Amino acid sequence: MLSRFNVFTKITLLILLLLIPVLTLYTYSNRESVKVIEHEIQSGTTNRLSFFASQVEATIYQLSLYGVSIGQDSSIQEYQRPDFAGQPYERVKLSVSILEKMNLYNAASKWHSDITLYFPRIRQVLSTDYYAALAYDEKQFEAPFPQTWRYEGNRFVWHATDPVSAMASPKLARLITKISFPIEHLTALLDQNKINNSGDPFLFDPAGGTIRNGSANEARIALLSNRLKDTPLAENGAFRAELDDTEYFVSYIRSKSLGWYYVDYVPMQQILTPVTSSRNLFYLSIAVLLVMSVAVVFALYRSVQLPLLQLVRGTKRLSAGDFSVRLPNAERNEFSVLFGRFNIMAQRIQELIENVYEEQLRRREATLKQLQSQINPHFLYNCLFYIKNMARMKNEQAVVAMSLNLGEYYRYITRSENDRATLREEVRMATNYLNIQALRLERMRFEIRIPDAMLERAVPRLTLQPIIENAIVHGLEPQAEDGEILVDGSCENGLCMITVEDSGVGMTDEAMAVLQRNLEKPLDRDMGCGTWNVHQRMIFLFGEGAGLRYARSASGGVRVTLTWPDNTDE
User: 159 and 275, same structural domain?
Assistant: First the structure.
């Protein structure tokens, strides 16, 4: 299929085929690079969030562990002895010791927390919160304690009992420990995590709302919170979300202690900006290269393809016979030399064709003159021999008639300004000739039946006379009985025909076939020139299909049919 394209189309397709693999390979490479970077973003965000969650969980676990283990302290066990009620000084002294231990724990802990001890047996309360006036109220311990930390008024609270089985029924506990810490500790960790990384972490709970870092984008986190509320969340996971026409990668991990979700998100485009810039630069380079390719293709089309098309069209016109074609020679390049040589070649071919055509016309005219001049002496010889014979026979009437017709004949053929005559003039000449022959052969009869509509048709001079002469000489004269010559004419189906029939001795089919073949051969000394000249002149003037045809006549002689196309009124 490619072989049917021209050179310009092949070059254009080649340029496109060179660009397509480059675009395909770079697109694939860019896509793989983006996938790798996205995977790194996802891994980094998830790992960073996991590390943050582990920090929070470790601190909360220490607080929870302290809340469980504090009941095993001997001071606390001694403080809640019933017999210790009668020793107020010792109890106060012991309570101060317990508070010092709890404050020492707060000092050693990462987070400062409020620790409150409830003693159901002695209905006493000890707390590190010196500003809170706490009193024992057994109503607040009617409901079972949850196993996780609760969010209460910007603080997270957790209860532990001694024994642990009393979590379901706090009234049965010997000791109830309440530990709480403010959300400022979580906010500080979020701020630290944001400084060290590129994300914007926060805590989310469908019921409790969000806990954000100090410089969080509140509007964006609000949008993301709505998205999180509408999304079924597992223990951990990640998804992509489009916020403010920007795509973000969101990771989340559920806290086993708090029941909240640690959430972090990073914009994908922020990390992919270098890759995107590189991609856009490459596409810009490809666009510039494509524009340059179009310019090169246009230059090739204008400098090569258009001249080639002009040369091809000029060659086609030249091969079709239009030798006047010339190619414009505007630009100064290699094709200008080629166009100049083509124009010189076309001019020389035109001159050569015109010279040959003129030579053919001259040769054709000379041939017609020669053929016509050959027939004139032939007829003159026959007439002179006839006059000679009639003079010997003292037949003055025949001599006079022949002389008169001979004079008319020479007056007719010496009008050399035109090589053709009308059929009317030919019929008149043939009638004069038949009258002469009828005088010479008293047993001959003739009849001419040519429609008046044909009489103005143009034919070569001396066309009928040689045919009639052959019919008389070779058909009627050799037989002893009377003979007849019939000349008939017609025009139909675009052809004009004149038939000359005689009732003479006739010819065999083989002899007529030989005579028909001789009409197409060059003239030699053994052939009669009369009918051959007529046949050749008809072909010269009217082309192939015109000429003489021999056939057997119904009266026993020979029928000669003269045919030519009815395409001229000359």
Answer: yes
Q: What average pLDDT does range 296-312 have in this prediction?
A: 77
Residues 450 and 559 grouped into a single domain: yes
Query: Cα separation of 504 and 513, whole Å?
Result: 18
Q: Are 126 and 154 in contact (CB under 8 A)?
A: no
Residues 435 and 534 in one domain: yes
Q: Is residue 303 part of a domain?
A: no
**Residues 249 and 370 reside in one and the same domain:** no
- Number of independent structural domains in the chain: 2
Nearest-angstrom CA–CA distance, 442 and 202: 145
Q: Is 406 left (phi over 0), alpha (psi -120 to 50) or beta?
A: alpha
pTM for the whole thing?
0.48
Q: What is the mean pLDDT of the chain?
A: 80
Among 230, 236, 288, residue whose Cα is nearest residue 262: 236
- End residue of a domain, out of 220, 254, 280: 280
Q: What mean pLDDT comes out for the span 406-424?
A: 72
Q: In 230-267, where does DSSP find H-type helix?
A: none
Does a structural domain hold residue 287?
Answer: no
d(C-alpha 270, C-alpha 256), whole Å: 32
Examine the domain organization and report whether 87 and 223 are in the same domain.
yes
For helices 423-440 and 334-392, give the axis angle rounded to 10 degrees.
Answer: 30
- Average pLDDT of the residues in 540-546: 84
What is the domain-level CATH number for residue 486? Answer: 3.30.565.10
Region 244-269 average pLDDT: 84
Domain boundary pick from 252, 280, 308: 280
| Residue range of the domain that includes 492 | 357-565
Q: Residue range 336-353: average pLDDT?
A: 82
CB atoms within 10 A of CB 123: 11
Beta 261-267 vs 246-254: how paired, if at all? antiparallel
Q: What tens digit of pLDDT does each residue of 101-132 get? A: 888 887 778 888 888 888 888 888 888 876 66
Cβ(365)–Cβ(537) below 8 Å: no
For residue 451, the model assigns a pLDDT of 92
CB atoms within 10 A of CB 131: 5
Domain-located, residue 332: no
| Structure token pair of residue 300 | 């090739």
Alpha-carbon distance of 108 to 331, in angstroms, equals 95
